[in-house]
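Changelog note: in this version the structure field was regenerated for every chain. One regenerated record is shown below for reference.
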Amino acid sequence: MATRMQAKVEAELAARTTFLAVANEFIEMMEREAKGPVTFKKARRFHDLLDSSIGN
């Protein structure tokens, strides 16, 4: 029974792991680490470019 529940949780997590979620998490990490404004601006620009191409 625990294995079935674990598999369900892993499947739900995998379904929520999208490019958008990972990219947003990465950018938030950069903010927390106080990266320079140019680095942050580049990351946001690449995020926007890729999101329109790749989507969720």
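Spot check on this record: The two ends are 32 Å apart (CA to CA). The helical segments are 2-16, 19-32, 37-54.
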